[in-house]
Design goal:
The relative contact order is 0.15. The protein starts with a helix and ends in a 7-residue tail after the last helix. By secondary structure, it is of the alpha/beta class. 42% of the residues lie in helices and 16% in strands. The protein has a single domain, classed as Alpha-Beta Barrel (TIM Barrel). The chain has 9 helices and 8 strands. It has an 8-stranded parallel beta sheet with strand order 7-6-5-4-3-2-1-8. β2, α3 and β3 form a beta-alpha-beta unit. The longest helix has 25 residues. It is globular, with a radius of gyration of 17 Å. Bound molecules: pyridoxal-5'-phosphate.
């Protein structure tokens, strides 16, 4: 891959590192309490390789077919693969081949399918995050992925009882509708509150996955442990996704 692309990615990483460090300083948090996950969707495997060379250890994808190809092309790299997209039951078996983390668990049926698939693999457990659709608290959100906040305890119990799965925490995407629209900081604060409730029954479920290129500062301020950043590292994507 070209030296130019490497320099571009290094510069993107440096800018994002500066933003995360600044947000940690402002919030009185230690930098190592926040993990950067670089979202590599629509980007070639050569970018993933450059990221690994530059020290990135966590990458995320949102579509199974693309993720499966990239993970295979990068199987020699010391990377943790995060699946962050809406997940259909018929894709679960493929996702189980490469995913170390699934951030988008939002219904019991998915849990059963994932558990069965993981039991067949040799890679160890999948760490599951429950995707919370905060806007569903007010009846918004329609068929967007994610469970309403009041559905979290039940889903946590289902994951906790599923062989091969570990309940790792919660994930959200800043709502586009409802009372949280345009207020990512408030939304992420609510997610952290739900996370506190969850940790009363599941103390090990400490991950709070929130914040993207546009709102990583708000996420760090609210208490996110993992930010998922794509375009601010790799450039603006041409296609939607
Ligand atoms: C694409 C995506 C991101 C990263 O978005 P950017 O705005 O490019 O940082 C984060 N989370 C999910 C679930 C995504 O689909």
């Amino acid at each position: 891959m070209s030296a130019t692309r490497r320099a571009e990615i290094a510069a993107g990483l440096a800018r994002v590192e500066e933003r995360i460090t600044g947000a940690c300083d402002a919030a009185g948090r230690a930098r190592e309490d926040v993990t950067l996950i670089v979202v590599t969707k629509t980007r070639p495997a050569t970018d993933v390789r450059l990221l690994a060379e530059l020290g990135v250890r966590h990458v995320a994808e949102n579509r199974d077919q693309e993720a499966a190809e990239k993970a295979e092309a990068c199987a020699d790299l010391p990377l943790n693969w995060h699946f962050v997209g809406q997940l259909q039951t018929n894709k679960v078996r493929s996702v189980a081949n490469y995913a170390d983390y699934v951030h988008s668990v939002d219904r019991p049926r998915l849990v059963g399918a994932l558990s069965t698939a993981v039991e067949r693999r040799e890679r160890g457990p999948v760490r599951c995050l429950i995707q919370v659709a905060l806007e569903k608290e007010q009846g918004h959100g329609g068929d967007r992925g994610g469970v309403a906040p009041d559905g979290v305890p039940e889903l946590a119990a289902v994951i906790g009882a599923a062989p091969g799965l570990v309940l790792a925490g919660l994930m959200t995407v800043a709502p586009l509708s409802g009372a949280y629209a345009g207020r990512p900081g408030v939304a992420f604060g609510r997610l952290v509150e739900i996370s506190r409730d969850l940790r009363r029954t599941d103390p090990a479920a400490t991950m709070v996955s929130a914040g993207m290129s546009a709102d990583m500062e708000e996420a760090v301020a609210a208490g996110a442990t993992h930010v998922r950043v794509g375009s601010a590292v790799l450039g603006v994507r041409e296609s939607l996704g």
